[in-house]
Specification:
7 strands, alpha+beta, 7-stranded antiparallel beta sheet
């Protein structure tokens, strides 16, 4: 099922080529974003902002392909390059998938999820989708709270769904303005 089958506003229905040139590589490279940032900075770290059950946007449920009922587990982190947050990432998985396919999520702590996703041959990834999020989108507000910057401009984001043993995991990566300090 594609997102076109779901009603409602979905900001991820735009093409990455609409983004400024310096952002296009960040939005379209389907390799590990964590590895890409690490290669462009001297010191990389990951800061867990929050994790646990929570509410999600209708387009996130649609991208996961899950019904309107049931809990979703959410993990929000900041990817930090040389002491400066450059990406706010949001991972979502149905709580019913955690005991089986995604059980390793509970023990991640401050380790990047990329270590799991890109090193497990059983994980399959959907194509990347791009969006430009602004103050009308709750994910923009989550990123603003995580960074303490309520005055930030609209932010470019990308997302894709990963599947392991048939169970979905959705990752949305929101690029903070400071991503421009790293070589694309």
């Amino acid at each position: 099922m594609t997102l076109a089958h779901f009603p409602g506003r979905d900001p991820f229905r735009i093409a990455a080529w609409q983004a400024p040139r310096f952002m296009r590589g960040w939005l379209t490279d389907d390799s590990s974003l964590t590895a890409r940032i690490r290669a462009r900075c001297g010191r990389f770290s990951l800061q867990v902002v929050s994790q646990g059950k929570g509410r999600v946007m209708p387009d996130e449920r649609a991208a996961l392909g899950v019904a309107h009922h049931g809990d979703l587990w959410i993990r929000e982190v900041l990817l930090v390059a040389d002491g400066v947050p450059v990406v706010f990432a949001r991972s979502l998985v149905p709580t019913t998938s955690i005991p089986a396919a995604w059980h390793l999520l509970h023990g991640l702590g401050g380790r990047p999820l990329a270590n799991v996703l890109f090193n497990d041959p059983r994980v399959r990834r959907s194509p990347l989708e791009a969006a430009r999020l602004d103050a009308r989108d709750s994910r923009w507000h989550h990123a603003a709270r995580a960074t303490g910057r309520v005055d930030q401009p609209p932010l470019w984001a990308r997302r894709s769904a990963f599947r392991r043993q048939g169970s979905p995991l959705l990752i949305t990566e929101i690029f903070l303005p400071e991503i421009g300090t790293l070589t694309p």
